[in-house]
Every structure is written in structure tokens, then in C-alpha cells.
Amino acid sequence: MSEKTIERPTTDEAAIAKEIEAEEKAAARQASLLRDGWADLRKRPLFIVTSLIILILLALAIAPSLFTARSPFSDGFCQLQNSMTGPSSGHLFGYDVQGCDIYTRTVYGARNSVVVGVVTTTATTLIGGLVGMLAGLIGGWADALLSRITEVFAGLPLIIGGLLIMSIWGGGDVWSVSFIMAILGWPQVYRIMRGEVIANKYNDYVTAARALGAGSWRIAFRHILPNTLAPVIVITTMNLGVYISAEAALSYLGIGIQYPNISWGVMISDAQDRFLTSPHALMFPAGALSITVLAFIMLGDVVRDAFDPKMR
């Protein structure tokens, strides 16, 4: 009577199976958080309203010609005889001091303001997220060194630091303004990412993956990173509005985006001296700026409430 050979899984196979199980549990946990957060967002009227405002703003930035048939860069666009004329049926926002149609300039001004916000937010998220992850994962002297470097940049407030650097560096276009604000803005994302990485790298599923032989990069991108994204998404959403308002402040002070480029900050600066006699020249670009910043900040609040379990 022959004996049947019972095959047992090898140690490597068992370790791989446990690692896969740990990865599946971590992925399921993150998927559940994102799914629950998205389901909660869709039930909030504030999320729908702010999303519609932001979609309109993006459409203004991408295709301003859909909203106005005029172009501020065409010959004869500005007519001095129309200087500071109030709103009328054919010109809803009236004219500015140079006799330019304010509605058209407001529409085209959205592009530079939004591009600065998006480019700066993307750059700060990538730089701060990468450096923060490295500091949190490595720890020790590398964490201390990166933290001290971060404190140097964080010591300069955004507006004051922008004024200082741009007065030396020079500026006047979207890319120089975005670059300088990105240099000053990444420490905020760094601190959040570093704290989240440190809080997550000692969790059981990370310890199990490390014990089963998973490499550092695999642990970082497959286990830790997905569980640190929620707070980064929240601060990124809010920062869009912050950087748009910072660009407007720098342009208002005459050191950000400059003529012939158009932005809401430039328009507000041009109209400030004639506010008492022609308030429309300041109110419309300032109103567009206020609605945009408020929409991004409120969207960030809604996203935070949806993705943070403690806020539910």
C-alpha cells in the first residue's frame, strides 16, 4: 500500500501568501476610506455648489473665448473715451481707467490666477510630499537635517518672502511667480506628510510586510503612501485658494504678475485709486477673486470633513 505524499507549502510560499494578505488588507482599508469619503461628499450640497463654481472657473481659464467674443489682446480693445464708464447692456462690468472692457479682462484674468494656483500647488505637493516621506521613513540624522532645512524656508511668510525674493529675482510672469511661491510653500506639505509617515510606519501591516521581507520602496509606496494621502488631499485643495489669493496680493503690490499680463490682482491695483468715483472697476475683479478663493477653501473644508473619520 503506497503512502501518499502530502505537499506542504514552503516557507517562501507561506511568506509570500502572508505578504499578499497584508497588502490586500491595507488596500481594502484605504479603498474603504476613499469609498466612504466619496459617498459622503456626494450627499453634501456645499460640495456640489463649490465644485460647480470651480468647474466654471476652470472653463474660464481653459477657454475664455467661450464666455466673451472680445479679446483684450486685440487692436483697438481699449478706447480712452470709454474710461471708467459704468456697466451697460453691452458691457456688463463697465470699463476701466484705460477704457478696456472689465468683463473681458476679468474672464481672461482667470487664466493666470488659476495657472499660478495649480502650478504652485502641484509643485509644493510633489516637493513637500517627497521630502516629507523620505524624512519620515529614514529618520535619524537625515530627518533632523531635512527638518532644519525646512525650518529655514518656513521662517519666511509667503507674502513677505515673495516680496523679498521677487524684488531681487525679478518677475512679472506666471512661471516666476509660481516658482517663488513653490519655494516658500512646500514646508507645510512636508510637515503633514512627515507626520503621517511616522504615524503609519509602525502600524501592524507595515511591520508584517517588513518581517516578510518586503523592501523599503515597496513598503513606502504600497503600504504607507496610500494611507497618508487623505490629509495631503485636504491641504492641497485649500492651498489652491491660498496661492491664488497670494498671487493677487503680490500683483496688487506691483511685484507679481505685471502688465501686459492680466490677473485679478493687477486689475484691483489699477482700480484702487478710483474706487470712490468708479467702484465697479474694483468690485468685479475683487468679487471674482473672493468667490474663487472662498470656493477652494470651502471645498477643502468639505473634503476634510468627508475623509477624516474623526469629523464624522
Quick take:
The protein has helices at 11-42, 45-62, 102-138, 140-154, 158-169, 174-200, 204-211, 216-224, 229-252, 264-271, 280-307. The chain has 312 residues and is mainly alpha-helical. It has a single domain, classed as MetI-like (MetI-like fold), CATH 1.10.3720.
Note down, in words, how this protein is organized.
The protein has 312 residues and is an all-alpha fold. The chain has a single domain (27-65, 90-311), classed as MetI-like fold (Orthogonal Bundle). Helix content is 70%, strand content 0%. The radius of gyration is 26 Å and the shape is elongated. The relative contact order is 0.14.
Secondary-structure map with pairings?
Blueprint: H1 11-42, H2 45-62, H3 102-138, H4 140-154, H5 158-169, H6 174-200, H7 204-211, H8 216-224, H9 229-252, H10 264-271, H11 280-307
Give average pLDDT, whole number.
83
Order of helices and strands: HHHHHHHHHHH
Helix content class: 55-70%
The CATH level-2 architecture is identified as Orthogonal Bundle
Number of strands: 0
Top CATH class: Mainly Alpha
% residues in beta strands: under 5%
Distance linking N and C termini = 66 Å
Q: If helices are DSSP runs of H or I spanning 4 or more residues, what is the number of helices? A: 11
CATH superfamily name?
A: MetI-like
Instruction: Compute the CA-based radius of gyration.
Output: 26 Å
Shape: elongated
Question: How many domain units?
Answer: 1
CATH level 3 topology: MetI-like fold
Parts with pLDDT < 50 across at least 5 consecutive residues: 1-9
The secondary-structure class comes to mainly alpha
Largest sheet: none
Protein name: ABC transporter permease
Family: Belongs to the binding-protein-dependent transport system permease family.
Subcellular location: Cell membrane
Pfam families: BPD_transp_1
